[in-house]
């Protein structure tokens, strides 16, 4: 899996202070997408064990109270990302028990494959649905367009 950016401290992509990973790879190609450079799964930089370890260390760092990890992109549920994202979210839940996981995907909950659902089983908040430019609304919290749905699986 490749990624485009990792932010160890962010307050815009989910509730509270968070670590945010923007992965490469998206097959939705939404018109008006603000992150088109992430569409190719081969774009960006290779996600390494060292970066995974850094994310865990950042989530455990007590100097900055982080609420959790946000996964965006691209699309974390792109078929080429599934095994790496599954490994990451599993590790976060095992080693950072008090942290939540937020994820943005262009797939809707009812479109998920069995392998995608395995990843979502670790997610606390899922924002689903493609970005639809004609339904864009900058006043929406956490969503880019009115069709997207925020699913809270845990509180």
Q: List the helices and strands in order.
A: EEEHEHEHEE
CATH 2nd-level architecture: Alpha-Beta Barrel
Poorly predicted runs are none
SS content category: alpha/beta
Helical fraction equals 10-25%
**What is the mean predicted local confidence, pLDDT?**
94
CATH topology: TIM Barrel
What characteristic shape results from the CA principal axes?
A: globular
Largest sheet features? 7 strands, mixed
**CATH class annotation:** Alpha Beta
Number of strands: 7
In short:
The protein is 21% helix and 23% strand.
What does this structure look like?
It is a single chain. It contains three helices and seven strands. It has 155 residues and is α/β, with parallel strands linked by helices. It has a single domain (2-152), classed as Aldolase class I (TIM Barrel). Strands 3-1-2-4-5-6-7 form a seven-stranded mixed β-sheet, with helices on one face.
Topology:
Layout: E1 2-10, E2 18-23, E3 45-46, H1 49-60, E4 68-72, H2 82-95, E5 100-105, H3 114-120, E6 125-128, E7 149-152
Parallel strand pairs: 2-4, 4-5, 5-6
Antiparallel strand pairs: 1-2, 1-3, 6-7
Main features:
TIM Barrel
């Amino acid at each position: 899996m490749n990624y485009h950016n990792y932010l160890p401290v962010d307050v815009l992509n989910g509730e509270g202070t968070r670590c945010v990973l923007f992965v490469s790879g998206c097959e939705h190609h939404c018109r008006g997408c603000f992150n088109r450079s992430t569409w190719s799964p081969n774009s960006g930089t290779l996600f390494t064990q060292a970066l995974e370890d850094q994310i865990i260390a950042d989530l455990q760092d007590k100097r900055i109270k982080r609420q959790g990890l946000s996964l965006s992109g691209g699309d974390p549920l792109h078929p080429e990302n599934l095994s790496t994202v599954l490994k990451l979210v599993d590790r976060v839940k095992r080693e950072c028990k008090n942290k939540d996981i937020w994820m943005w995907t262009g797939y809707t909950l009812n479109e998920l494959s069995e392998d995608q659902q395995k990843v979502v089983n670790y997610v606390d908040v899922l924002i689903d649905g493609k970005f639809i430019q004609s339904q864009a609304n900058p006043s929406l919290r956490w969503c880019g367009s009115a069709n997207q749905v925020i699913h809270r699986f845990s509180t």
